[in-house]
Amino acid sequence: MLEKKKTARSRPLPIPLPADRRRFRQRLLTWYGRHGRDLPWRKTADPYHILVSEIMLQQTQVDRVLPKYAEWLDKYPSMAVLADAPEQDVTRTWYPLGYNIRPKRLQSIARESAPTPPARSAASRSASAPRSSTPTWLGCSFASSSRRAIRKAMP
């Protein structure tokens, strides 16, 4: 039978004192002021743009995301545009970021969040992915409160 190896850290570390936390926070913010990268998703309050960046950055390097982020927002500037886009085009636009379930989940969120335009006919709605009352992004890593905040912020 194997014994568990005892480690030096069997007890949780103590919480730093408030003065130490303030000092650390100030040092971190000073470092960020000097070395932080200028990234487009840090300059927007648009929930859709932030959502796109969060999904793109999951297990993908920032340098690979930057050109795709701009291309994506040029092609799909809103949840409504993404919701109505053909799934194959969405997946093709996502290439070469990998983890191709991510664009499908993002489009699923868009389809559930964006209002159905009145001009869309019943025939065109049935040709695209169905809008059901059952969330299709249940497997997505976002907390339900984040999804509610995104929906609430959408026009």
Features:
mainly alpha, single chain, 8 helices, elongated, 155 residues, Endonuclease III, domain 1
Molecular structure report:
It is a single chain. The chain is mainly α. The protein is built from eight helices and no strands. The chain has helices at 18-35, 47-56, 62-75, 79-84, 87-94, 101-113, 122-127, 144-153. Helix 2 (47-56) crosses helix 3. The longest helix has 18 residues, at 18-35. The model is unreliable at 120-145 (pLDDT under 50).
For the termini, the CA-CA separation is: 61 Å
Radius of gyration: 21 Å
What level of helicity do the residues show? 40-55%
How much β-strand is present in the residues?
Answer: under 5%
Shape: elongated
Could you name the CATH class of one domain?
A: Mainly Alpha
Oligomer state of the chains in this structure: single chain
User: Judging by the overall fold, what is the CATH architecture of one domain?
Assistant: Orthogonal Bundle
Low-confidence runs of at least 5 consecutive residues: 120-145
SS-based class? mainly alpha
β-strand number: 0
The CATH homologous superfamily of one domain is named: Hypothetical protein, domain 2
Secondary-structure element string = HHHHHHHH
What does the main sheet amount to?
Answer: none
Number of helices: 8
CATH topology of one domain, by name, is: Endonuclease III, domain 1
